[in-house]
Design brief:
Layout: H1 4-14, E1 17-21, H2 27-37, E2 40-42, H3 47-55, E3 59-63, H4 69-84, E4 89-92, H5 100-112, E5 117-121, H6 122-131, H7 137-140, H8 155-169, E6 172-176, E7 180-183, E8 188-191, H9 204-217, H10 222-246, H11 251-267
Helix pairs in contact: 2-9, 2-11, 3-4, 4-5, 6-8, 9-10, 10-11
Length: about 270
């Protein structure tokens, strides 16, 4: 893991701008999160400007939540332009198994672009492996519950899953679960900790994907960017949880403290668990 002060200095120097092709459910939280972490977001969703906006950003996030035909076109155009510019691309295949329309769109997207990082839950990882003929979703017992993972696997299975996903798509893979696993197809990092209340924050996974893009846009290699993003997100949630408990707060207090904690962690200021 990178020294936090060094990471903070990189973020201050570059102030990475992320082109977030995302869903309306999480747009505001994602924009505020990137500002708190030391970067910024542009959320151009139209195919008419997707490639042009990509040119003035440092990284691109392709989030497949709330898809339509225009969104698929915009994602492909942005992804192609990012590849030409050698900019990192993060794919968050939200609800990959929720519908045939979504599966076919993601499959087309992956045939056109090569992501630097895939950040997904366990179910989405199985769906993506199925697209490459690596696994049968029926054998895996997949019964999609929408955008949330409908399955639970052991830590050992999740390590294997992340490694296979990274190898299949030649990228870094961050597979979220009770323990997050990051792999580059050769090695892996286990990220423990966090706070269970994160499951009650809509878009917490989407925001983690945005952090991956931010750190990759700051110049960290994809595997390192995913590791740093996952570790900081868990650390921020733990700090937010301790502060919420101290004031006997609810989920709204936790949400507020989460952004404050992330800002502290990314700024390099000393953070102590309370």
């Amino acid at each position: 893991m990178m020294d936090r002060k060094e990471l903070a200095e990189r973020l201050r120097e570059r102030s990475p701008r992320v082109h977030c092709l995302t869903n309306p459910v999480t747009m505001q939280d994602m924009a505020n999160l990137l500002l708190a972490a030391g970067g910024s977001a542009i959320m151009a969703q139209s195919p008419e400007e997707a490639a042009e906006i990509t040119e003035i950003c440092h990284a691109t996030l392709l989030n497949t939540g709330v898809p339509d035909q225009e969104k698929w076109e915009a994602c492909i155009l942005a992804g192609r332009r990012a590849a030409k510019l050698a900019h990192p691309v993060v794919l968050d295949p939200v609800g990959a198994g929720a519908s045939r329309f979504r599966r076919s769109g993601i499959q087309r997207l992956l045939s056109e672009i090569r992501p630097s990082i895939i950040r997904c839950n366990q179910e989405e990882a199985y769906i993506l492996l199925g697209m490459r003929g690596e696994v049968s979703t029926r054998e895996a017992g997949i019964r999609s519950g929408g955008v949330e993972s409908g399955i639970a696997v052991s830590e050992q299975e999740q390590r294997h899953l992340a490694g296979r996903l990274a190898q299949a798509y030649d990228c870094a893979a961050l597979v979220s679960g009770e323990v997050d696993v990051v792999s580059d197809g050769r090695g892996f990092e286990l990220l423990h900790g966090g706070d269970q209340r994160m499951a009650r924050i809509t878009g917490s996974g989407c925001m983690l994907s945005a952090l991956c893009a931010l750190f990759a846009g700051a110049g960290l290699p994809p595997y390192e960017a995913a590791c740093e993003a996952g570790a900081l997100w868990k650390e921020s949630s733990e700090l937010a949880g301790s502060r919420t408990d101290r004031e006997y707060g609810g989920i709204g207090s936790f949400h507020r403290h989460l952004f404050d904690a992330l800002e502290e962690c990314c700024s390099g200021r000393k953070v102590e668990q309370e």
